[in-house]
Write a structure and sequence with these properties.
Blueprint: H1 2-17, E1 20-23, E2 26-34, E3 42-51, E4 57-63, E5 69-80, E6 83-88, E7 93-95, E8 100-103, E9 108-115, E10 124-131, E11 135-144
Parallel strand pairs: 2-11
Antiparallel strand pairs: 1-2, 2-3, 3-8, 3-9, 4-7, 4-10, 5-6, 5-9, 10-11
Keywords: Signal
Pfam family, one: PCuAC
InterPro entries: LpqE-like, Lxx211020-like, PCuAC_sf
């Protein structure tokens, strides 16, 4: 009986940690950000976006309350002649039909800019993601301490 109770507690705890959101044919899996060092003015947001539909969609924007960040952009990181470059993605992030797009360090990500305070482990950042066709969906980016995300297949962000 004790083993059954322990198993149930573990399953409930695991379900509370994983958080997915849905709008239309779009599923957003585990949006998270990494705690910043001190009061760093920027931080990255990550997630997996799956389009189960038969038509392409586009993530157009992400917004957060102004008391969290003064600006939010969709970014892409690339290497050009050995130099790391980060830039806003013009026109949004394409989410092709039947595919999953991973927003992660070293690639596509949400960039929280002009943070009012650094991001702290355990903090929750309410955000609205806007898709061209699916529309708006409210999500929560859970702030995780650096290194913790690596055990879940995420590789962090060096912002």
């Amino acid at each position: 009986m004790k083993n059954l109770i322990l198993l149930a507690a573990l399953l409930i705890g695991g379900a509370a940690h994983a958080h997915d959101y849905r709008v239309g044919d779009i599923t957003i899996a585990h949006p998270f950000a990494l705690a910043t060092v001190g009061n760093a003015p920027v931080g990255g947001g990550y997630m997996e976006i799956t389009n189960a539909g038969d038509t392409d969609d586009v993530l157009l924007s992400a917004t957060v309350p102004e008391e969290v960040a003064g600006m939010v952009q969709l970014h892409e990181m690339s290497i050009d002649n050995g130099i790391m470059r980060m830039s806003e993605v013009a026109g949004g992030i394409a989410i092709p039909a039947g595919e999953t797009v991973v927003l992660k360090s070293g690639g596509l990500h949400v960039m929280f800019m002009r943070l009012q305070e650094g991001l702290k482990d355990g903090q929750e950042i309410p955000a609205t993601l806007t898709f061209r066709d699916a529309g708006d969906v409210d999500v929560i980016f859970n702030v995780e301490k650096r290194g913790a995300a690596k055990t879940e297949g995420h590789d962090g962000h060096g912002d």
